[in-house]
Amino acid sequence: MNSPHHPSEPKADKAGVRRHNLSLVLRTVHEAGETTRAAVAARVGLTRAAVSSLAEQLLERGLLVESGKTFSGQAGRPGTVLKPACTGPAGLGVEINVDYVNVCVADLTGADRVRRSVPLDNRALAPVVVLRRAAELTAEVLAEASRQDLHPTGVRLALPGLVSGGTVRQAPNLGWNRVDADVLFAEALAAARPPGAPALPVASDNEANIAALAELWFGALGAVRSFLLVTGEIGVGGAIVLDGELLRGAHGFAGEIGHLTVAPDGRRCRCGSLGCLEQYAGQTALLRAAGARSVDTLTERAVAGEPRALAALDEAGRMLGVALSGAVNLLDPQAVVLGGIFPRLMPWLAPAAEAELSRRVVSALWPSSAARLRPASTTATTARGAAALVLRDILADPLTYGG
Amino acid sequence: MNSPHHPSEPKADKAGVRRHNLSLVLRTVHEAGETTRAAVAARVGLTRAAVSSLAEQLLERGLLVESGKTFSGQAGRPGTVLKPACTGPAGLGVEINVDYVNVCVADLTGADRVRRSVPLDNRALAPVVVLRRAAELTAEVLAEASRQDLHPTGVRLALPGLVSGGTVRQAPNLGWNRVDADVLFAEALAAARPPGAPALPVASDNEANIAALAELWFGALGAVRSFLLVTGEIGVGGAIVLDGELLRGAHGFAGEIGHLTVAPDGRRCRCGSLGCLEQYAGQTALLRAAGARSVDTLTERAVAGEPRALAALDEAGRMLGVALSGAVNLLDPQAVVLGGIFPRLMPWLAPAAEAELSRRVVSALWPSSAARLRPASTTATTARGAAALVLRDILADPLTYGG
């Protein structure tokens, strides 16, 4: 990202250069958290004067704020600190999963400022009803955000299925096929919001993809930039991040590890195939095998050493390990992150999964590498990741959103 | 690649700018096959005068040649055609597989100008002996190349195993463990070449990785830039190309689809795991199941409708389909390319593999997409790909190699 447009380059028109460089300065401040004009200039390769002028425009539009005095680390000269604004333009994320809806507003710094979560059995409801409930919750969150002087510029929906061009092509665990989520949610939100409130653009994406970006942006991955995320929900979702970028694939459907075959002639899956991972390690399959009604119950029984619970977790861990071995052999990632219900079940799942990985990953790379199973960070929620995707649009083109 | 360095950018020293821009012009001509100075200038965003000066230096060093007159498409004015030289600096590739060695010299245009292939059962020989035989064959090829005024600037080895930092970490089908292939081959080549011949730098890589690059550069993929390559050899190799770049992974070992589990409690593999794909679809496994001694025999029997041959091919195709379904669900590639022994077996392998893909790939994307199984191109040999990797070094820094 940190490459300025120079007027000497061909076909770079003046307005385009300004737009690009405003974004460059805003993204640089955003990445740093707080910094000085001099440090920005050094980082992006523009003159100090150019950066000052660009920063002024961003301050005027309320995208940056200025505070205090500091000493720039590099030059030893005093400079005013620039930060992203923590009021004004914001992002709104909505995670619609099989048994709950989460909504989050993040300010331009990425902080999650408003959060709402409601349990909702979305399998029992028509898509249009689910989207209406989610829109109603979103309208409440928007009202609360407005009281905090936060004004989302768009909505990102996270959905547990194959999403492309605003449509949920297939979400087997929701029972959705070809649902125009973007349009239906936007209509429902328009109906739920106070009259006169501006319409917000809505865009949908796969929930595991967004969870992976949340982990990248808000997790505890350190230097890890290439990883596989596997989320245990009613089904099993997955996403792949390579060098800090989501792998979307040719049709936008990459990362579907939940439907990797772990037993070619095994249990029938809702997707139509046989022996998919999620029929062994998804929440529904796991609870059924354990004879437990909730993950809380399962955890209690596992703590108590109940044999059926332990056997179910061991089998799920084993199948998870078989599927992960395949993914690790293909992708050779720096890390494998487990999200959703998996982190709290890791004491029982992980040993069986690690045993399979040690045995099945070529060159016995697994145990000796840094790529061990690790739990997703609790601060890196999918709804926050969705909100941050809206922020990314603001950062990419500040002129459209600021002021 | 097509971004010129401008003197206005920070820290771009003059020699570095010249080096970068020489490479830019050479790569642009190489990509075009033949083009004019004016077209290069328009493409890369440098002035016509700057491109002319850079082209002059590349002509003097023998990296470009000039021929005839033409009309530039864009401006309608006459311009001399520039092409990469077809004598002088060249690349040399060596594929050492389990039962053969292939050597190829490619000129700067990418054309394969000298080719040698010898059958060699490398399982029966010590690594140092295999590398010596390959070096002797290489010395013969170098002598022939020299007669054609082609002078390779380096050697790239393609090996069927996990390669990192010049060492074969593990090549189960060769029986190699921690073999310093680069050093051993360079020593053997120094001994085999005529006295006084210059030493050549040697670098090793995984054979499937190189086969995938060969397919990308010399195959018939059209607009496909993201694909999975699976090569049937004694074992089964694999490589992943995303947006025209090889996915190497955190340790350089990505793409190992041969060790994807297709039957968790299945046949023991040489890698130490159970139920790896190559125990069902690799050449050794396939011939054993068919009771055939060679792929030629197997093909003849399949043509004749011999039930055991057909059953073995159907089972291999089925397992290949199970593994490919997993890879397609994870990667969502534009295409899956089958190489090695698979192309000529596709009439029997492909139907079973396609059936599994239709059933197991989520959203039934498989049959409706362009991502069907396709055979590797016969012109895209691994040895040629290896030679082209040497060319890439020349293109990246022409000053080091030209003249």
Automatic annotation (TrEMBL), chains A, B:
The family this protein is said to belong to: Belongs to the ROK (NagC/XylR) family.
Protein name: Transcriptional regulator
